[in-house]
């Protein structure tokens, strides 16, 4: 399995999962043309896409999900309540994900878990194929302990590190937006993400981490990576994280079990 971040942040999110049996998109929050061009760079054509998984209805995750699904007859996999909230053309096949059971797509297993975010049924997802698992949790305002084993199952964790608390306070965002971002149904700050990863690292298994959905104004890749390293160091589990990479908003970053992203990938 190879995972490619096509874009990450409030201006658009999409992640490509490639396996020998076919590919999946997790979210499609970019213009169609951009998604297709970036997929093509990694050898994935629309006919290789077995499905589009939609984590929640916010535009930065869904902009072209319906249109892509319709044009290339790609099914959408999402929670039933989310499907009601997004614009899905009637000809598109929609499969509902389930918290209790994995959904199998050509041998690729998708497991959804509820997260705390201001959407109708926001989810984190685990995607597994041939003994490799990636977990993606990009929008959550707080985390519950049940998320720890969910992430521990993965060799690649894509986890939000949205903002630095002090930078958010000093940012030019209006007061209500600051409150929304920092709320339990908004976005995780670097320290919250670090604390979660410190719990994940207690199993002492080696894994890679991508820090996702960084705020451009209230965070930076350097601050995010440094803050998280500091928290992991305090919990003496830094050594179990092979790489910690801050995802760029508009460049692609690829991961495979044998081909790790380098920590110097900063934007
Ligand atoms: Zn969101
Ligand atoms: Zn988002």
Please give a handful of descriptors for the protein shown.
single chain, 267 residues, alpha/beta, Metallo-beta-lactamase, Chain A, 7-stranded mixed beta sheet, globular, disordered C terminus, binds zinc ion
Describe the structure.
With 267 residues, the chain is an alpha/beta fold. It has one domain: 4-Layer Sandwich (Metallo-beta-lactamase, Chain A). Helices cover 27% and strands 27% of the residues. It contains nine helices and 14 strands. The strands form two sheets. It has a seven-stranded mixed β-sheet with strand order 6-5-4-3-2-1-14. A seven-stranded mixed β-sheet has the order 7-8-9-10-11-12-13. Helix 8 crosses helix 9. The chain is globular and about 50 Å long. The model is unreliable at 262-267 (pLDDT under 50). The structure holds zinc ion (2 copies). The site of one zinc ion (ZN) has 5 residues, from loops.
Explain briefly what this protein structure is.
Helix content is 27%, strand content 27%.
Radius of gyration, taken over Cα atoms and rounded to an integer in Å: 17 Å
Predict the CATH topology: Metallo-beta-lactamase, Chain A
Terminal residue distance: 25 Å
- Gross geometry: globular
Average pLDDT over all residues: 95
- The CATH homologous superfamily name equals Ribonuclease Z/Hydroxyacylglutathione hydrolase-like
| SS strand fraction | 25-35%
């Amino acid at each position: 399995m190879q995972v490619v971040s096509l874009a990450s942040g409030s201006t658009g999110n999409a992640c490509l999962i490639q396996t020998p049996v076919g590919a999946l998109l997790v979210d499609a929050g970019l213009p169609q043309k951009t998604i297709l061009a970036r997929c093509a760079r990694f050898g994935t054509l629309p006919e290789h896409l077995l499905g589009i998984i939609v984590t929640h209805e916010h535009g930065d995750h869904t902009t072209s999900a319906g249109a892509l699904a319709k044009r290339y007859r790609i099914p959408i996999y999402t929670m039933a309540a989310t499907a009601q909230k997004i614009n899905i053309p009637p000809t598109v096949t929609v499969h509902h994900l389930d918290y209790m059971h994995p959904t199998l797509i050509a041998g690729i297993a998708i497991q959804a878990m509820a997260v705390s975010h201001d959407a109708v049924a926001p989810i984190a997802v685990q995607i597994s194929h041939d003994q490799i698992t990636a977990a993606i949790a990009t929008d959550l305002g707080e985390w519950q302990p049940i998320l720890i084993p969910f992430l521990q199952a993965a060799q690649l964790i894509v986890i939000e590190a949205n903002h630095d608390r002090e930078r958010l306070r000093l940012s030019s965002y209006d007061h209500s937006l600051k409150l929304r971002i920092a709320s339990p149904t908004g976005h995780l700050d670097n320290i919250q993400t670090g604390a979660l990863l410190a719990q994940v690292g207690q199993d002492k298994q080696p894994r890679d981490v991508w820090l996702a959905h960084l705020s451009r104004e209230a965070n930076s890749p350097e601050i995010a990576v440094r803050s998280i390293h500091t928290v992991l160091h305090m919990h003496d589990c830094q050594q179990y994280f092979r790489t910690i990479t801050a995802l760029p908003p508009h460049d692609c970053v690829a991961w495979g079990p044998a081909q790790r992203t380098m920590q110097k990938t900063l934007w």
